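Here is a typical protein record:
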Amino acid sequence: MKYFFLLLHVLLLILLPPTAAAITVEAIGQAPYSRQDPGLSRQQALQRAMEQASIQAASWLSGTRQARNGMLDIDTVRLRSMGKVSNVRVIDEKVQGGQISLTILADVDVGAECHDSRRETAYRKSLAFTHFPLEQPADANDGALHEIQQGMATLLAYQLRQSSTFNALDAGHLNIIGTPTQAPVRLLPEGTLTTLLHDSEQHRVQYLVSGVIRSLAAHHAPGPQQPNVLVDLYRQHAPEHGYHQRDFVLDLFIHDAFTGSLVHQQRYHMTADWNADSHDKVGFGTPRFWQQPFGQQLRAVIRTVSNDIQQQLICEPFTARITRTRDKTVWIGAGSLDGLKTGDRLSVYRRLTHYDSQMRPEYELINTEHSLTLTRVQPTQARGTLDAASETLNIQQDDIVIAH
């Protein structure tokens, strides 16, 4: 009878429609505890708890449960997909024997997978994290956190590389935001509003990720006056006044670099305690910064942003640029490091350029209904054969191929 139910669950996995199923899961995550960086320890435990929640949800749907040392494991059935974890609530936290343990409740959506949701078959899409300007630069004066504008790109690129197959580049020195107060909308000289990025293709990545830090404001206004011991003691023991808290509000933008189109935007808002003296130059990303409750909570926001980007782009098609053509042979600017293999077939698209009234280029992708079969793949480039001469199809440099 148990084999009948196991078979029934497997059949349900195959026959269920591709819409996601949401379930609430309780899971435990553990990590070594470091007194020097408790925030990092907590982040690692939370990440492992979320991974266990995803595994348990997928395991519940697949009908297999294997418990080993108190942690769920999967042996007999290869899971079709891992779920998207959201609405995470920490219900228990303890430190014992050099380990921190977190118990969470989380909602997990388990849906249909795509080609790139599995590491063994995924193509490595490239994206660049650019500058994150402050809408109000004075917000960073408290704690001397101005480096957050470039440091966010570094942290997000690292997080995404660690947790996904994306080739995430740190381009924090590159500011593609026009006026932060208006972003992602830009006012063109003739008065037209647009969200398009011009010249985005020159950066040689598939996506450009930017954003504006709308607020980094403390809930109190630090002034030049000398510290008052009595006032400081009162504020320290009256946390209900929210004196020590500060905000972090981020608007995130993702642009398709081949067309310049805005494909996704999302807002993140966090409020946490900032206990450093207002005249203390803590600095962004320093050990003292991460020891602050504000820094610890920001780690969780960075992980959330990284997860959201992955969920948003994971099933988007892989795209590469054509670098050279000769008769039926075509070379592209991607190779084995991007997950390409000999025999892969890629759809060929022409990239048509249109010009607006101010002679600014805008791009349109046209499917030629022809494919390129890869015959030789090197680490950073590949070549293949078309089923017709490139001249006949008018295929040329800077056209693109797409793996659907």
The chain has seven helices and 18 strands. The longest strand covers residues 361-377. Confidence is low (pLDDT under 50) at residues 1-21, 61-81.
